[in-house]
Structures are given as structure tokens and as C-alpha cells.
Amino acid sequence: MDEIRLLLMDFGIPPYFADIGFWVTLLGVIWAALRGSFRAMVWFLEHTSLVAVKQELDDHLARRMDKQRKDYDDKLSDAINSIAELTKSNQEILKQLVKLEERDAAKFHRLNNLETTVQSLSTELMHIQVLNNMPIGRSITLNTDDIGGD
Q1: Among 33, 66, 86, 111, which residue's beta carbon has the most beta carbons within 10 A?
Q2: Separation of alpha carbons 9 and 3, rounded Å
Q3: What is the pLDDT along the chain (150 residues), one digit of tens a residue?
Q4: Is residue 146 assigned to a domain?
Q5: How many CB atoms within 10 Å of residue 120?
């Protein structure tokens, strides 16, 4: 009998409708009302276990709340796990970005060194061209005044 009541409650039927005692009490109250006996109606109501009906309602609500809480906990756990996975993937992406920035910095440093080398080679080339265009005489005279000697 309890299995049937629980099954009916799971389908959304309130526990007091799934209880045989409720229907007996309701029929007794209707019968007493039809007979016009207020005392019989009060007796049926007094002997109906309202505490049991309230307890069944509380149990039903507790089962529903437990089920909702479990569903909520499962969804929350799934959300936390997906956030953790996203965090891990973001960390991997950041590590890759750092590696790329380090490579870019190394390339920039090499390019800067190449530019400096090209500038110094251009300067040397200009010196060589200047020297190639200068006529070289057979005798080299040194100006001793520039050297600092007598």
C-alpha cells in the first residue's frame, strides 16, 4: 500500500489524496453531514490522523527537496569541473603565449643585432669606398705636429 502511495506522490498527487484514511474520513464527514449529525462529523474529524497526514506531507516534501538538492549538487559539481577544465586549458594557452612572446623577443633581439651589424658594415663599406676613391701618393708624409712630437 505504501508503494502505491509513494508512486502516486511521485506523479504529483498530494499524499493526503493517496491515503485511504483520507477518503474514509472524507466519506464519513460527508455521510455525517448528509445525516445532519454535527457530532458524528466532529468525531470523524477528531479521529482522523491529521498528524499522520502532515508527516506524510513533510516526508514527501523532504524527498522532493533531497532530489532537487542532489540534482543541484550534481549540476554544481559539473559546473565546477568544467570551470577547472577551462582553467587548465587557459593555463596551457597562456604558457604557449609566453613561449611565443619569448620567441618573438629572441627574434627581435636577433633582428636588432643584424641591424646593428648591417649599419656597422655599411659604415665600413663607406670607409672602404672613401679610401678607394682617395689617390694614394708614392710617399706618405706624416705631419709631426699632429702626432705631438718635435
Answers
A1: 33
A2: 10
A3: 566 667 767 777 766 666 666 677 677 777 777 777 777 666 666 666 666 666 766 787 888 899 999 999 999 999 999 999 999 999 999 999 999 999 999 899 998 999 999 999 989 888 888 887 766 555 555 555 555 554
A4: no
A5: 10
